[in-house]
């Protein structure tokens, strides 16, 4: 895995490969208190993107990952796609829409959909396809945002009854427990 893999740096549970790009893009933000947004600078954003596109290529052998050279102006575009994605995955954003071109081709195995467009458009298209497939396989409801309001980490809930709340029990879960404990002390 590349050094800037967004999800891995947050020590939380990684989604199946079919949601790789979606979870990665969402997790470029991470815990809001630390402010280490990988999309803040072109250098870190490019390093992250190169790594994640290599990984995407590895798990989608029949398709071709786009090669994308980010310019400063693209960072805002990428952040907008991320906001739209938050809206679709968590229902918390005002912009739950992702308009993306999809390429449909016919082959020996029937009709196949693959990401269309170029640059940021290709990324938006690739995550849109991931969302569709994840919903079909009933995986999408397991992709969740950490319930700590100061944390934007998106984790994949592997618990039996899909009941996990925190991206990491030791940090965000622990802080919530301490808060609840203090509140109880005050009340008694
Ligand atoms: Zn968290």
Automatic annotation (TrEMBL):
Origin: domain of life: Bacteria
Domain Zinc finger CGNR: start-end pairs: 142-185
Gene3D superfamilies named in the record: Jann2411-like domain
Pfam families, sorted: zf-CGNR
PANTHER family referenced in this protein's UniProt entry, alphabetically: BLL6575 PROTEIN (PTHR35525:SF3)
This protein's name: CGNR zinc finger domain-containing protein
Annotated source species: Kineosporia mesophila
């Amino acid at each position: 895995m590349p050094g800037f893999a967004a999800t891995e740096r947050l020590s939380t549970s990684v989604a199946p490969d079919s949601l790789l790009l979606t979870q990665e893009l969402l997790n470029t933000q991470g815990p809001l208190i630390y402010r280490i947004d990988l999309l803040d600078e072109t250098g870190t954003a490019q390093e992250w993107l190169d790594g994640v596109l290599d990984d995407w290529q590895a798990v989608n052998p029949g398709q071709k990952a786009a090669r994308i050279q980010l310019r400063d102006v693209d960072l805002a575009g990428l952040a907008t796609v991320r906001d739209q994605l938050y809206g679709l995955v968590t229902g918390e954003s005002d912009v739950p829409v992702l308009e993306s071109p999809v390429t449909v081709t016919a082959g020996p195995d029937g009709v196949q959909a693959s990401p269309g467009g170029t640059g940021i458009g290709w990324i938006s298209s690739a995550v849109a396809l991931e969302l569709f497939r994840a919903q079909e396989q009933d995986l999408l409801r397991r992709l969740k945002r950490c319930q700590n309001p100061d944390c934007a980490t998106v984790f994949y809930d592997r618990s039996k009854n899909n009941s996990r709340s925190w991206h990491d029990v030791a940090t965000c879960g622990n802080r919530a427990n301490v808060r609840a404990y203090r509140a109880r002390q005050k009340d008694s």
